[in-house]
Amino acid sequence: MRAAVLHEIGQDKLEVLDDVEAVGFGPGKVKIRVRATGLCHSDVSAMNGVLPQPAPFIPGHEGAGEILDVGDGVAGLSQGDRVLLCWLPACGSCPACKRGQTQLCLAGFMNAGTPNFKRPGGDLFGFAGTGTFAEEVVVDAGCAVPIPDDVPFDIAALIGCGVTTGLGAAINTADVTAGSSVAVIGCGGVGISAIQGARLKGAAQIVAVDPVASRREAALSFGATEAVSPDELADAKQRVTAGEGFDYVFEVVGKSATARTAYETTRRGGTLCIVGAGAMDDFLQLNMFELFFDEKRILPSMYGGGDVLASYERAIALWRAGRIDLESLITHRVPLAEINEALDQMRTGVALRTCIEI
Asked: How many CB atoms lie within 10 A of CB 282?
């Protein structure tokens, strides 16, 4: 089968090969024919080494498709079922799951260390235990979440990561209050989803912050009340909040520099929500006096900060009702053979989300 492979960490191009095989099928597993997958910034971060991932590997973790085969012991799934890929399935039995914090379950991360592809040259890993830049993938049954027939594969793929992450940050983690002021720093697919979440929660002012003009313009159509470049953020803070700072600031870049800016843009007693996934050697510096004196809440948000299965259902219900726009998040579409074009679209910021049609 065909798949897009990164041979070494640090390479900026993927090689599309046709000699790859999905492996590991057996009890408790399912084999999925991938139909659509989104390019998420986390894929690029894994390629350049910001996020830890063994190589060689197949990127992609935001996907949807049809079940080709079901292993022994798998209940509730059948051949032909339409599913989205959950890259962080809950085991249901660890302390985090028992506390109801299924997004913090570590069982899914264990899959990332086991190769689930091979080719004549050796084993290949799938990013985050999945690897959806491939025609087929073998995953634990818990990774395959059935979707209703009226949900297209491309929409389901987005719900599998970016939409759930952004919406959940606003709805679950920050729990934005009606009438509040919000700033969102970084307006790709996840940031736009955070904007939509803040709008749903009734935020009065939502300021989108991004260096790319086309993304700022797009943010306005998704619910932002104004959109500014990073250089204009200080002025927006002064105009919108009389210099006090925003009630909620979402950092959706994953860098300490933007997190520090986000902290300084949050009012005293306000909430800074960290959504971007950053590097282990990139440290955010805060002094102990400001941490105490400003009483700002710093809330990291992992995969939307809540039960992902419930979050999927909520996103589908909101989409059906026309309360969130998911179709417009997909600004570009490319076939798997042109995956490097999709990477260029992300790096230059021209795309909110590129759908890879497989």
From this structure: 12
